[in-house]
Amino acid sequence: MTYVKLLGRRSEILKRNIGNLISKDNQYGLSDQENMFFKNMIKELHQNEYELNSSRRD
C-alpha cells in the first residue's frame, strides 16, 4: 500500500468516526472526554488532508 493510499484510507476512517460523533452529539450530546476526542480527530483529519495534498503535488 502506497503512502498516498494509506493517507486516503485514514481520511475515510476519520471522516466516518467524526460523522458518528456528530450524529451522537446531535442526539444525546457528548461527554467532556468525547468532546476532546472529537476535537483531536478533527485536528488529525486536517493534518492528514494537508499531508495528502502535499504528497499528491510531488
UniProtKB/TrEMBL annotation:
Protein name, UniProt field: Fur-regulated basic protein FbpA
Domain of life: Bacteria
